[in-house]
Amino acid sequence: MKNIRLTLVFYIAFLMIPLYWLFNMSLKTNTEILSGFSLWPTNPTLDNYITIFSDAGWYMGYVNSTIYVGLNTIISLAVALPAAYAFSRYRFMGDKHLFFWLLSNRMAPPAVFVLPFFQLYSSIGLFDTHIAVALAHCLFNVPLAVWILEGFMSGIPKEIDETAQIDGYSFGAFFLRIFMPLIKSGIGVAAFFCFMFSWVELLIARTLTSVDAKPIAAVMTRTVSASGLDWGVLAAAGVLTIIPGAIVIWFVRNHIAKGFALGRV
Amino acid sequence: MQKKLNQKAWFLVLPVFLLVAFSAIIPLMTVVNYSVQDSFGNNEFFWVGAEWFSEILNSERFHSALGRQLLFSAIILLIEIPLGIFIALKIPKQGWAVSLCLVLMALPLLIPWNVVGTIWQIFAREDIGLLGYVLAALDVDYNYTQNSTDAWITIIIMDVWHWTSLVVLLCYAGLSSIPDAYYQAAKIDGASRWATFRYIQLPKLKRVLLIAVLLRFMDSFMIYTEPFVVTGGGPGNATTFLSIDLVKMAIGQFDLGPAAAFSLIYFLIVLLLSWVFYTIMTANEGKTNQS
Fold it and tell me: What digits encode the pLDDT tens for the residues B64-112?
């Protein structure tokens, strides 16, 4: 038992120490960071956070990221729900090929798509808009959402569908009022993953935006100024990007393990 | 589950099909288009056939980037998969600590990738980072911006920090689906710790391990942001992986033709290797089911 605890404690400490260090730095001024080494801030200050919240250039980065992540999650779920239902309930022409083709998009290196995305969205006039990033992120989020939802839906017995049909429910009413509540946790997990992968992605988001929809990850490169890098503000910005993730993870904590197994354990 | 044949199901799939086709097929066609043409600017293109492909396939630059990439992915899989299984076995079955453990472990997965890079860039610095400072105090010769071995070690530790939890969570999900009766039976038979693992836990883990290996392989093979932030591909070219090299070529130098050919070769390698993994692991599964 002791041995068990020790391994876990070591592993979690290994995960937490770098995070603590970031948090520690975010509470110091830049001069304090550069002047000496200390395990905790001697004069904890919130100056770095105030800098971020009082400058539109900074906080708009968070707003932009949140908008395109939200849009992407909604679009992904809206198209993935009916498709996952079709995959879990019916056989149809080319279903297996289609399923693997979708998955192959999850395997496509984003670096491959950077240049064509830039040209595609520039040519249809969507460059530097939130919807462009949201649509581009669908490339890897929609297949993932279909995959997860299909796993959860296959766990619901088909008899429920048939009973609802006999009871006179139309397909739409059945889907919205009976089926969706049954796979609530699956939808939650799928939304969580769409959020997660859209939130952490930088390469595509950075390429498709310049000013109006610039994500926070790209704004973070601003900390280089004439006087060198402002480490304190950089660390504070980093801490603030971790918080949304920590909040959503709390909501799905009971389904998280099953979700990571994409609903198929 | 027996599925009904219903061609109308296509209507339900159509939105996904159109959306993914829009964001996958059109860009991919652009890439194919560039890969067989050359341009002197002014939007004038002419056909060059497979010239770019043979140029990339024969270039020293591509070979070395591919070599580094394969080595990196191999090291990552060899460390993260066993470590992930090991830690998942140590997580208790129930209790208040379980949720806390899982949430804390999942935290690194939700940090934007460039912030992961920033965290480790700071953490490993000799003047302001804890790791670099401690190593320097212990008189270890460590400098990730100058020495390529140190750069590699830093990036590997960073990736282990970032992604091992994914393997842990997957394996934990697999392990918690094993009914208690299996363990009781093993206990009655006097099975050793190792036998329990080998004959009860490992077979149950196969499915999730397939997902873990596939995801970890694909994502480590496409790694871009984290090493780019930490080392920028350096020192020299020591940590220039395929994606970094490709972005350099496409955005930095704007060599559209070679970059497009590079992209297609890259994509095909990922698909091929993932398919090989998938076939090997599912073939094994089929055999154990029959016996």
Answer: 889 999 999 999 999 999 999 999 888 877 777 788 888 888 888 888 8
Q: For residue range B124-151, what is the model confidence (pLDDT) as tens digits? A: 887 777 888 888 888 777 777 788 888 8
CATH superfamily ID and name for B50-283:
MetI-like (1.10.3720.10)
- pTM to 2 decimals? 0.84
What percent of chain B shows pLDDT beyond 90? 10
Task: Count interface pairs A-B at CB distance under 8 A.
Answer: 265
Q: Report yes or no: B278 at the A interface, CB cutoff 8 Å.
A: no
Residues A265, B173: C-beta atoms closer than 8 Å: yes
Cβ-defined contact of B19 to A79 (cutoff 8 Å): yes
ipTM: 0.81
Please tell me which of the candidates A107, A115, A201 has its beta carbon nearest to residue B251.
A115
* Architecture label for domain A57-260: Orthogonal Bundle (1.10)
Q: Give chain A positions within 8 Å (CB) of B240.
A: none
**Residue B14 φ/ψ, nearest 5 degrees:** -55, -45
Alpha helices in chain A (DSSP H): 2-26, 30-35, 47-53, 56-89, 95-106, 110-123, 130-154, 159-166, 171-174, 180-182, 184-200, 203-207, 216-219, 231-251, 256-260
Task: Judge whether A76 and A59 are in contact, CB under 8 Å.
Answer: no
Residue of B nearest to A103 (CA): B271
**Which of B4, B16, B217, B247 is best to mutate for the A interface (most A CBs within 10 A)?**
B16
